[in-house]
Amino acid sequence: MKIALASDHRGFEFKNMITTFLSNLGHEIVDYGTLNGTDSVDYPDYGLQAATAVGRGECERAILICGTGLGMSLVANKVKGVRATVCHDLYTVEMSRKHNDSNALCLGADVVDENLLEKKIKLWLETPFEGGRHARRVGKIMDIESS
Ligand code: RB5
User: Is 99 a catalytic residue?
Assistant: First the structure.
């Protein structure tokens, strides 16, 4: 899968860990920055680029990391076609795919359990959307974009 990654300085180390993990699984990574964890940067500058890649269909999914995951989700959900979800545990990761067809996973470097990181990402990548009544609901969300 082609996956866009972006972080601010707070999420930089996790972005590196995720890059290694996903590359080892055979995924193609497009890294939209930031490029180090020392310079304080603005998360919208990086999150927007990665989310836009998903909105345009250039990448299938995005994983966005800032301090809390919240700022990145606010940015990504402004981009047409993106359904970004902040998931702090395995249950919300699973449901974000099954019910919300999440295509952008937002993680908080300050709150994520490092021991669960790989498990969460694998679960998010592998869990299918259930469709059915959830497709109707997600469709209503997507209709808001064009109204
Ligand atoms: C940066 O200090 C911090 O605000 C950012 O990483 C993120 O948590 C915003 O939502």
Answer: yes
What is the number of other CB atoms lying within 10 angstroms of the CB of residue 69? 25
Nearest CA to ligand 1 atom 3: 67
Residues in the chain, how many? 147
Residue nearest (by alpha carbon) to ligand 1 atom 2: 67
Q: Which domains does the chain have, with CATH numbers?
A: 2-146 (3.40.1400.10)
Give the C-alpha distances (Å, rounded to integers) separating 98 from 40, 50, 60, 127, 130. 35, 22, 16, 7, 5
pTM, entire model: 0.98
Tell me which residue has tokens 């067809």. Answer: 101
Query: Catalytic residue among 9, 59, 66, 106, which?
Result: 66
Q: What is the pLDDT along the chain (147 residues), one digit of tens a residue?
A: 999 999 999 999 999 999 999 999 999 999 999 999 999 999 999 999 999 999 999 999 999 999 999 999 999 999 999 999 999 899 999 999 999 999 999 999 999 999 999 999 999 999 999 999 999 999 999 999 988
Measuring from atom 4 of ligand 1, which residue has the nearest CA?
67
* Alpha carbon of 132 to ligand 1 centroid (Å): 36
